[in-house]
Amino acid sequence: MDLYSGHINNLIEELGALPGIGSKSAQRLAFHLINMPRDKVLRLADAIVKAKENVRYCRECYTLTDRDVCPVCANQKRSHKLIMVVENTRDLAAYEKTGRYEGVYHVLHGAISPMLGIGPGDIRLKELMERLQGDVEEVIIATNSSLEGETTAMYIAKLIKPTGIRVTRIASGVPVGGDLEYIDEVTLLRALEGRVEL
Ligand code: ZN
To answer: Which of 1, 59, 104, 187 is the most buried (most CB within 10 A)?
Structure first.
């Protein structure tokens, strides 16, 4: 693409490397950024750098947070005996939006996928098992209903079963392959309330 200067090409390339941004969107965003007032561009750049430098994993549930322990884990009104296992921080946010879940979470940061070469050691499973040494009554597995999500759910259930801790899976009804974050709150609540024993 020799149409543009090196700086523009560079910006288009960096934006195009982001998930969900095709080359057309990357070009559109690049020109939008270039036309933005300088102070707005600096604010955006600063927000990116600050988020990158200050965001870390919660010491307990491994969600992304800017504190040592995230607000959910730090809340003593939440039941710490009830742990919902989700694939990522976006799924946690989806359940939090319902405002009805009173337990805590465990964020795996991925799902087992033999096809992509992602094994149990590549997600935060060991950390989950360590948490189960404490006082836990139930683990709700809320991974996606994709092949990877189901594989992960079955794997976790098998690991937990011998501990005697109750293991449940959110009800199907959540569309197959659907990302939890795109599902409305009513459906999420129904899936949670209709959870089944594994
Ligand atoms: Zn946490």
So the answer is: 104
